[in-house]
Write a structure and sequence with these properties.
This protein is mainly alpha-helical. The protein has 16 helices and no strands. Helix 1 packs across helix 8 and helix 8 packs across helix 15. The protein starts with a helix and ends in a 21-residue tail after the last helix.
């Protein structure tokens, strides 16, 4: 029974994540076809700054209030009233700093204009995350997710119309900002209807909660910022076109990561169940490691033989020059998926304490190697840095024993972990 359930859960999670990811990929393709590698590079640099700054503005509060609302829906109103002014203020401050500092972050006038035009996304995205956290905690996240998908579809169509009408990259950035504001508005309208429990009247103090949640933010940034840092460094050292070539390849590799990502999300509760009963969790992980490695090798083979035509078909003929970058970057998928599997294994065994340290070490390695390789090798150097960082991360995790904090090293009938 476990296998069909795991498979069904994987498919459901994949379909849920596939829609928004596909729409964002198509929007990027519109930008690339209209404005070439330099245009996609400016677009990628914008989001390489917006996403981490929005996470910092959130200060981990979506996770904090989500936990409280899941325990008592009556706290939703108080949590939102306490958190919104804090996150909105931080988001506006982040947007202001990005717009003000844009000339110091890039020497390309087009990138500077893109950063200034897209800065409001920090504020709208960070505040929206509060409403979506409450809705998910209350089990009402589907309407907001459907609305997000519909708005992304409208943004895609609007982007095509803008390009066909001779619009500029700044117009597409404005469309993205408008879509972000609309997503915030819809989430704010849905949230009160999604959580109908009477308010408990408890006050929520955002600043103390942010102090605790900020640790989670740093952990997330350590795990996810390597690729964004590479895009920013490419824009500075390798030119905006180099950032665009790398971004196109990274988006395809990220698309290939969707299916195993859905599997990992479904695998964690299943593995936790087996681990809690000593039911050969390590053997199960070893089998999963073989499967994800085979999948990664298949993806590497596809990109090795078809990188140029795939890039040209999706992003335009000017991106076929990034075939080597895509081939190299796809190799990072092998250690990356094994790293994710090892992380799932550690959390399932109640031994996730070392993950944040390894993620931080991997980020430092990624930035350092990208800093060294990009000036001489451009986008290919950034791809090599990703392979080095992911390989280092998975090796660190493989040689770190999975030891639950309270009970010492947990053993089961499966022997030592193979992933």
């Amino acid at each position: 029974m476990a296998r069909p359930s795991l498979m069904r859960s994987t498919v459901v999670r994949f379909l849920q994540g596939c829609g928004p990811a596909l729409l964002n990929l198509l929007i990027a393709a519109v930008v690339a076809r209209a404005f070439g590698p330099a245009g996609l590079g400016a677009w990628a640099i914008l989001f390489a700054w917006v996403v981490p700054l929005a996470l910092l503005a959130e200060a981990g509060l979506p996770a904090v209030i989500g936990t409280r609302v899941a325990a008592d829906r009556g706290e939703a109103t108080g949590c939102l009233r306490g958190a919104i002014p804090f996150v909105l203020g931080a988001g506006v401050a982040g947007a202001f700093l990005l717009a003000l500092g844009a000339p110091f972050l890039s020497r390309d006038p087009a990138v500077v204009a893109t950063l200034r035009g897209g800065a409001p996304l920090i504020a709208t995205g960070s505040v929206r995350s509060l409403f979506t956290a409450v809705l998910r905690a209350a089990g009402k996240g589907r309407p907001a997710a459907l609305a997000d998908g519909a708005i992304l579809a409208v943004q895609l169509v609007t982007s095509v119309v803008i390009v066909k009408g001779g619009g500029t990259l700044s117009h597409l950035v404005f469309a993205a900002v408008a879509a972000g504001a609309l997503r915030l508005l819809i989430a704010a309208l849905i949230a009160p209807r999604g959580v109908r429990e009477p308010s408990t009247g408890k006050a929520f103090r955002a600043a103390p909660a942010a102090g605790k949640g900020f640790i989670m933010v740093l952990a997330v940034l350590a795990a996810t910022s390597g690729g964004r840092a590479a895009v920013i460094l490419l824009g500075w050292f390798g030119g905006t076109s180099g950032a665009g070539l790398y971004s196109a390849s990274a988006r395809l590799v990220d698309a290939a990561r969707l299916l195993p990502g859905a599997f990992f999300a479904a695998f964690l509760p299943a593995l936790s169940f087996f681990a809690s009963r000593g039911a050969g969790a390590n053997r199960i992980v070893a089998t999963a490691a073989a499967a994800v490695t085979a999948y990664a090798l298949l993806v590497v083979g596809i990109f090795a033989f078809g990188a140029g035509p795939i890039l040209a078909a999706l992003f335009g003929s000017s991106f076929s020059a990034g075939a080597g970058t895509l081939t190299i970057l796809s190799v990072s998928l092998i250690p990356s998926l094994l790293r994710s599997l090892r992380t799932v294994h550690a959390f399932a065994m109640g031994a996730g304490g070392a993950i944040a340290k390894v993620n931080l070490a991997a980020l430092v390695i990624h930035i350092a190697t990208a800093w060294l390789l990009i000036p001489g090798r451009g986008a290919s150097g950034a791809a090599i840095a990703a392979v080095i960082a992911e390989t280092a991360a998975v090796l660190l995790l493989l040689f770190h024993p999975i030891t639950p904090p309270a009970t010492g090293r947990r053993r089961d009938s499966g022997g030592e972990s193979a992933a």
